[in-house]
Amino acid sequence: MTDPVRSCILTRERASPAHLVRLALAPDGRILPDVRAKAPGRGAWIGVARADLEEAQKKGKLRGALSRAFKTGEIAIPDDLPARIAAALERNALDRLGLEAKAGMLVTGNDRIETAARSGQLRALYHAADAAEDGRRKLAQAWRVGSDREGSDLKGLALPVTRTILGLALGRENVVHIALTDKAAAVRVGEALSRWLHFIGSDPSRETPQAPCETVSQGASAPASARAAAGTSGRDDDTTHEEFE
């Protein structure tokens, strides 16, 4: 059975829903992000980065595409829709990390991560934005040794959030580095991170032993540069946060 695909309403490029962002039409006519694709009714999908969305909104292209997608001109597009999407994607990615932490799928702490890396168990490695460079290099080297890839550029990905934010997402203190040893968990985390980083225009460069190094692509078919790892705090937000989730 083939996976479903959707088309970006702005570029017409086709991709898996896991790589796109769904927009939903609220009962009052507002367009709101539905990053978990749970809102009822017709949806519209976008795969462009935030800068491209803002340009399309400014030029009126977004309104036209949404009117065609929802088959009505009675829509209200919030001026801060791109910011709302970015916030929803960040929350979804951090929630994913929190869920994986609760399930025991995350490894934290330099020593434990280094041990897992040198034993060849690592599937993904992430760092807080304020992680020290020498700590990143040490864990990257351990990963390369454990993966029998010394001399390569295999390394972890620095996320655009601080250790304080990561700690809040995981319910732990001082989370500087995060690793995953389970392949399925790494894929779940990576998919959530990939959508978020692609939308905000981040340009990560990271490898995993399962896949060659990729950067988040531009357009609707954003592949998984960060798709090899992720988790959530299990929070179900509603439209009081100006989004569908």
List keywords for this structure.
single chain; 245 residues; Hypothetical Cytosolic Protein, Chain: A; 2 domains; four-stranded mixed sheet; three-stranded antiparallel sheet; 7 helices; 11 strands; elongated
Question: How are the elements arranged and paired?
Answer:
Elements: E1 6-7, E2 14-15, E3 21-25, E4 31-33, E5 43-46, H1 50-59, H2 61-70, H3 81-102, E6 106-108, H4 110-118, E7 124-127, H5 133-146, E8 157-158, H6 163-170, E9 177-180, H7 183-200, E10 206-208, E11 211-214
Parallel strand pairs: 7-8
Antiparallel strand pairs: 1-2, 3-4, 3-5, 6-9, 7-9, 10-11
Helix pairs in contact: 3-7, 4-5
Structure report:
This protein is α+β, with helices and mostly antiparallel strands and 245 residues long. It has 2 domains: 6-79, YlxR-like (Hypothetical Cytosolic Protein, Chain: A), CATH 3.30.1230; 85-214, 2-Layer Sandwich (60s Ribosomal Protein L30, Chain: A), CATH 3.30.1330. It is 37% helix and 15% strand. It contains 7 helices and 11 strands. The chain has helices at residues 50-59, 61-70, 81-102, 110-118, 133-146, 163-170, 183-200; strands at 6-7, 14-15, 21-25, 31-33, 43-46, 106-108, 124-127, 157-158, 177-180, 206-208, 211-214. The strands form 4 sheets. It has a 4-stranded mixed sheet with strand order 6-9-7-8, sandwiched between helices. A 3-stranded antiparallel sheet has the order 4-3-5. Strands 1-2 form a two-stranded antiparallel sheet. A hairpin with a 5-residue loop joins β3 and β4. It is elongated, with a radius of gyration of 19 Å.
